[in-house]
Amino acid sequence: FAAAPETVDPLIRAHILSLVSALGGVTPTGYDLGDDALACLKDLRRWLRLYDEKLNRYDVARCMAEANLVNGDLVEILADWKEEDTENKAKHRLALACVEILVPLTWPFEKSLSEMTQNHHRHQPVLLHAQASYKSAILRHSSRKILSSIARVALPSVAIPAIERTERDEGIIRLVLYFFRNIAMIEHPNPNESDTGEDINRCATIEAFNDQNVIHLLLAIASNMGGEFVTQDVVVMEAVYHLLKSVDIEQLFRTEEEERNKKVGSLTDLLKREDEMKRAAARSRSTRHNRFGTTVWMEKDDGRRAFVSGQDALLGRDTAQKKMDSSKKWKKPKGSDVKGVGHKTEFDLVVTLEGASKPQMRTFVEDFLDAGFNPLFSHVRRAIDRDAERLLNTNQRQFFYLVAWFLKAERARRKAAAKLQLQQPTADAAAADDSFSLVASVLNQEMLITLNRRMTEWYESKSWLELQSGMRCFTQILLTVQDMTASPLEEDQEIAENIQNRLFYEETTLDLIIGILRSYTKQPFGWLDDCTEMVHVHLKMLERYSKQHDHLFVRSKRQQKAKKKRQQQDGIDMPADDDNNEEDDEELSLQSRNTMRERAFDFKKFEGKLLQQSCVSTFLAFLDNYKELSYAQVKRAITFFHRIFVKRQEEVLLFRIDIVEQFYRIMQDPDGLPQGHPARKEMDQFVKYYLRKLIKKLENRPEMYVELLFTKLNSTMHYLTHGYDKEIRVRV
Amino acid sequence: PAEKKDTLGIDEEVKIRRKRVTVKLDEERLMSSLGIPKLRQDAPRKLKFKGKGHEYRDTARLLSYYQFWADDLYKKAKFRDTLKIIEKLGHSKSMKDQRLNWIEESKRKERLLR
Known about the structure:
heterodimer; A: 732 residues; mainly alpha; two-stranded antiparallel sheet; 30 helices; 63% helix; globular; B: 114 residues
């Protein structure tokens, strides 16, 4: 074996190797089991448990990888288990013993850096590659039934009704589910040109899971969650999560034809853009050879000169000055990112499915929505509320991520169905008229409370990744509710009305939204995208809702008494303080009348909280990714700026020279927003309007030249905006 | 024997060289004659705009002016970085007071004109 002798204790290696060779071997006719194969498997399992797990090492796992145990033996044993032998106790036991070894061998390495020892660091990279090869062997085995064999291990236990199941049966089901989760989770650790990891990528995984009925097992268990199955909820959820994380939903619900058009469109589009880029580069390129020395000077206002070399400096003042700037070597030191806030996360990936896996995935998603969504997610939600022990930290964010994912998928499905019905009215596309009951379990009060509580917790503890899953979930709930208000069914509209009432009722939630927007520092683009989307959608809906309702109640912290009063009216038992009830009553009614009166202005007041530099900076940082933004995303930023600049007339807030520079760069720089960008026209309109106002302001108030450099002071904002000081009313 | 001593270099006096002082963009520099005072004096006089219909050209003019000003003030850093540093300096108490004074001054001027 290739490994250096000192990586593992030779004695352990000898033990493992003798066990593996005693297990059996491949013959021309199939796999021949050794005499004591079952005992060997048990021994191997014992080694893993009593050495690796107990001593917190990876030595045994490493030896097993070297001995080719999985690919040479276990997979072959499982492949030899024929369907007619399912009832055969001895063979079942053998297969189970294989799974018992496979699960720890494929288990994800989830230790944090501080927990890892030298031993872990030594073995982990090798084991990661070994796991990829296990997955490849399992998915690509010539019999194409390893996964279904493993599923068969669990079937006898699954068939037993829940009350009659023993502890062992439950354990077997969980074991098999964990195996599927592990397989779904394994990725190639280091894809490169010669080894792309294509044989174990998402498409391959989904195809294998579908062909070998694993997906159906997952669906069956998910749809019976709460009934026949109880403790398996988290494992099933995890398996589903790793199957569909980062999958592009819109692509999933496009038909073949749309997909083709899109692809062709995007190819020509991309070529066009590349051409444009090339032309822009050619414009500034020198027309002579690179030693054709050229020196240009620019005269400054006071007659002094600045020198720039290179032919392109001749093109114009703009390019010359840009060149002057880019020749500077010094870089402003960026603050170190000790906590890794700026690192890309798993939420920043996008996976596109190809070939057969796409329709298979789509069927799975639709089936899951129809049958598994409500039972599984209401069950997990309750587990989260209870802080159940089986939940890991990562499970919560997976839960919210999945809820958001499926809500978006459901909306995409409805849209696709509605489109289909428009094209062929006779086709049975009833889905568009269905009520939203398929996703009702995440639209109830309990869910909103859970989500709200978690988001507050995560916001306060600065757990940005978790918060991101919460934000996504919240956005999707809002969008679903928005779709519900447009539903032809009266019942849906009523529910939507109700949910909105509850959503916009808590002032703490409203403040949380703005708090999150203000808390942006270095988070990756995906976070920024989710954050701005949430704020955008929330603000739009709240605005519309407050317009429709003159008297909008908001519960703020100060009105504790009013809350108590309402609860009493609702018949909720309160601690007895009956004696002073009557006195309170008058006071309370007075208070609630006061709040009623305030509500009419409420939206403006709420919107006013957005008029801060920190909110503006978040959107500016978002817009700075303009080259990658879609139409809707650019529009989102423009809408926000429009809200501040035009609607609220808080022009001064945006008058800063770096903002001017950014806007100018986006519109005028060769590196700016591409010419054919769909949002270019609207951006142009806004920027022009903005610049016109700015120049007028500069002409009227010369003190703006200095203030343009800074964030404005609160005390001078009013004067700079209007040209006179705020009238202060003194009460006499 | 004297030569031997020299090769070791023990008797030579050790010169302590100070590290070169790096130029910093701080409040002092910002308030120097190259900084904001110059901007206040020159910008309104020297910048002329064409107004409606020429938004981008006017802005190019404006940005170019600020870039030369920033370059004179702090040669080392790029335009955008300089702006960031200056913006941050504006948060200090003394800068805030100073800015308030300037605005008060222009208010007074305006009142006199009326």
